[in-house]
Design goal:
Elements (H helix, E strand, L loop, with lengths): L7 H8 L3 H10 L16 H15 L4 H15 L8 H20 L4 E4 L4 E4 H80 L2 H7 L11
Antiparallel strand pairs: 1-2
Helix pairs in contact: 4-5
The protein binds a DNA duplex (20 and 20 nucleotides) through helix 2.
DNA sequence: ATCTCCTAACTTCGATTGAC
DNA sequence: GTCAATCGAAGTTAGGAGAT
């Protein structure tokens, strides 16, 4: 027998709720709605019956949390025979599961009961939430601490690097200065030598004979 | 009594994608 | 181009609980 597939628009008409409500229920009830090759949800007759049942229960005042619990029970029990699951069986099993859920959650002093006993937040759940929050807070604190630590390290490294670089630049400057000084000295001595030679070259021949190469006055006749 | 806060259950919006 | 679908996020509403 061919299974009929409905798109969300058709399914919403059949169940008589808006499409976004079906999506919302899917999410809240953690239902596994199959997708076609385009990624669009498609619903079978079983899904339609399930959603009709959910709607019916909601109209009776049950919360989605309770319906989810009941649904899980029913799907666990009747899941194998999904195709043949009739409306009567579905309704009967859902009601039985809801009754069980009510009893489970209303008799214990650890539970908070609101209204008809359907909206229940167990202490365990609260403890779990509390633990999660604590983990979150501790995690954040560690995160902040780590961040501060890495900032401190980065500051220290920057400072150290700065000093190191400054020292290197200073040493390099000193070396450079020393090199220039030496170069300057060499140039000056070269210049001195050159000037003396040039001065000697300027003295006239007759003077050279009287004064000699160095320009000193020679004794007559010698 | 009323104000504030919280939660559940939608509802709306905007961006994106694919079919016709 | 229009329509119909997706998703995630943000907004809205109603009702309950606690504080003042």
């Amino acid at each position: 027998m061919d299974e009929v597939h409905y798109l969300i628009s058709d399914a919403s008409k059949k169940v008589d709720v808006e499409a976004h409500v079906l999506r919302y229920w899917e999410e809240e009830l953690e239902l596994d709605i199959p997708r076609n090759e385009m990624g669009h949800r498609y619903y079978t007759d079983l899904h339609i019956r399930l959603f009709k049942q959910v709607k019916n229960l909601k109209e009776k005042g049950y919360q989605l949390k309770a319906i989810k619990h009941a649904l899980n029970q029913v799907l666990k029990k009747d899941g194998k025979a999904q195709g043949e699951l009739s409306d009567e069986i579905l309704e009967r099993d859902m009601n039985a599961a809801l009754k069980e859920f009510k009893e489970e959650n209303s008799g214990t002093s650890l539970s908070t009961v609101k209204g008809d006993g359907v909206s229940v937040v167990a202490m365990e759940e609260k403890m779990e939430q509390f633990q999660q929050i604590m983990n979150l807070i501790i995690g954040r604190a560690l995160e902040v601490n780590n961040e501060k630590l890495s900032q401190d390290i980065s500051c220290l490294v920057n400072e150290k690097m700065g000093k190191e670089l400054e020292f290197l630049f200073q040493a390099s400057d000193q070396k450079e200065e020393e090199r220039f000084r030496q170069l300057d000295e060499t140039l000056r001595s070269c210049q001195k030598g050159g000037q003396a030679e040039a001065a000697a070259a300027k003295v006239p021949f007759f003077k050279r004979r009287r004064f000699g190469r160095s320009g000193k006055k020679l004794r007559d006749g010698k």
